[in-house]
UniProtKB/TrEMBL annotation:
The lineage of its organism: Bacteria, Bacillati, Actinomycetota, Actinomycetes, Kitasatosporales. It comes from Streptomyces bungoensis. GO terms for biological process: response to stress. Coiled coil: none annotated. PROSITE patterns: HTH_MARR_2. This is MarR family transcriptional regulator.
Amino acid sequence: MATPQKTRPDELTMEVVGLIGEVVARYHADYEEAAAGHALTGAQAKLLSLLSLGPLPMRKLAQKLKCEPSNVTGIVDRLESRGLAERRPDPADRRVKVAAATDEGRRVARELRHGLRFAREPLVGLSEEERLALRDLLQRMLDA
């Protein structure tokens, strides 16, 4: 049985991959800067942003952050010590603990979102139609 031959990506594909990498790097740098403005690490800020959407079990947080549950425990501990998050029993299963953002945590998460200049500023220069097209193309890439 013949093995399918892999073709090398064309120049345009490689250019797009490079641009995506640059966008990701700038986004991460901007995110780290916004987090530091609140005396948070990037990981703490990401976890807080997730919790601002609603309480989540520790295991689910670990899956979303692609890290070990023990790491999530440490991050939640630090957020909890600052009054930004809390642990509570899961209403569906009281044996399970969920982490939740406090009111202060939701406020900080909102400020973090508003502080992301790179993620927001270049998009302002695009028309609504261009932003919709970009969103749809990015979603297609993620769905592939």
